[in-house]
TrEMBL record:
It comes from the Eukaryota. InterPro entries: LOR, LOR_sf, Tubby-like_C. This is LURP-one-related 6. It comes from Theobroma cacao (Cacao). Belongs to the LOR family. Gene3D superfamilies: LURP1-related. It holds the Pfam family LOR.
Amino acid sequence: MAVAKASAMPLISKLYCSSSQVVLVVRRRPHVVNGGGFVVTDCSQKVVFRIDGCGVLGTKGELVLRDGNGDALLLIRRKGGMVEALSIHKRWKGYTFDYEGSQKLVFTLKEPRSSCLAKNNAIRIATEPKGSSFEIKGYFPDRNCSIIDSIGNIVAQIGVKKEVDELMASKDLYHVVVNPGIDQAFVFGVISVLDYIYGESTRC
């Protein structure tokens, strides 16, 4: 499987598109509050993103991705209502905020109804306004999966380094490799939804 090329693909901000491959570390927040979310740091342990789950926000089916300063970058909501009950797929929608505070749709993630039970059900993501498409390959709870684009290039890989895996029986610490030109904020917006779908740190 090929690695995505280095041409910048800013969905949230070009500030999060690096010209080189980036390895970031995800740490779950302490289990004081269910749905507390997780923190993303770089190799120097500087906080790059924070993800607030429903335990912090007080609203189920809602997530917020913040930058290292705590400013909101993405609001992610699970679509609800009667349409949801009749749909084969559950849908998550990610929104950015403009300077006036209004929301702009950036991506939609489709989650198969039985994705919590089956490893082979594809999870697909469509971006706005360009309409690029992505898919999750692998199984997130095993910390062994990738985000790939429509032609099969790897955008980001989620995994656990062997030395970390040997030290920790849990999956509270794992790494994400984001390839050049890919919007890291978009990647972690997708990861926060995967975390919620599989009932982990962001879910109450």
